[in-house]
């Protein structure tokens, strides 16, 4: 083997901890920044209108396939903790294909009384426009290497609220371009969404 690569400092450290040779190299994932940075504000406003969102609605968007380890259930619990005033002004968009978790998430929405606050949009080809239509990007994964969804949201100019797993904290500078929150902690998510 000539080289062993990790896509975040966290992954490199995990490889070293598992006994990989000390020559592990770090190469972060790359994205086409221009595709997201130019997800025009006009297209975003048009999409907001198509989705029925007023200008004062706070749109939180999570781009992640619906796997349990992506932490969607934590996002729903945090939204429920926000209380009626904020909850009535906000909508959470879940963008990604169903990988077996949607039915449980829909049941959780009913239990929490949030069916009007969350929309499942499925897998979409217009993610740059969805991000342009959003106010805050969120990713609550329980495990991650280095998330393209995080850097795509940042390229679109969104503040990101992300779980402190994998390379998320390497991308998001807490308090500057978003917040890094402990995974599996809806109360801390609620606090960060309010700030």
From TrEMBL:
Tell me which domain of life the UniProt entry assigns to the organism this sequence originates from: Bacteria
**Family matches, as SUPFAM superfamilies:** UDP-Glycosyltransferase/glycogen phosphorylase
Drop me one GO molecular function for this one: glycosyltransferase activity
Question: Which Pfam families does the UniProt entry name for this protein?
Answer: Glyco_trans_1_4 (PF13692)
What PANTHER family does this protein's entry cite? GLYCOSYLTRANSFERASE (PTHR12526), WABG (PTHR12526:SF623)
The protein in question is named Glycosyltransferase
Source organism of the structure = Candidatus Proximibacter danicus
Q: What is the lineage of its organism?
A: Bacteria, Pseudomonadati, Pseudomonadota, Betaproteobacteria, Candidatus Proximibacter
